Amino acid sequence: MAESPEMQIFHLLREVTVEYGLRQGEFAARNGMHPTDVRALICLLDAERAGTDATAGWLGERLGLNSAGTTAVVDRLERLGHVARARDARDRRRVLLTVEDRAKELGRAYFGPLIDGTVALLGGFTEDETGAVRRFLTGVRDLMDGSDGGAGAGSGDRDGDGDGGGTGNRGGTENRDGGGTGNRDGGGNGNGTGDVAAGEGP
Known about the structure:
The protein is mainly alpha-helical. Helices cover 52% and strands 5% of the residues. A hairpin with a 7-residue loop joins β1 and β2. The termini are far apart.
């Protein structure tokens, strides 16, 4: 029985999701990071782009990590020179997290060709076609945000050690912010669909 056009698109989306997750896993391994670290960087890049103050608590909520797990991820990224902690100038009790230029440069070096190719591909679409793509992807994202679980439940890394041994990241659906599904040889871990911050990666 032939697949409907809608199911063909769904399976294409899944294929892209898996492939992009593999790329993120390769990027993490190449730069001495866990897939959880890459998800954290993408969350922080998205926060910067949106003008959102990113605290450790905010990051932990986005990643589905507990306090200790979030601290482990931030400490690791800070040691690698990818993330900086700074006191909020408006509220000295708060510590904000920012992505360092080094991390942005690494992301751009690795993901730049994919970003440029995607932008060029979209440049060939009409305004109506681009709007349709945006509506579709936004709708899928919103469906995942509203999910109460499903495939992927239990595949998270709540303790932030990058081994995938945690109890799940909000049923496995919240990680649209990034995350590798492993290396191409199947040796990696983590999950998520990814969300490239324009021009920065990962």
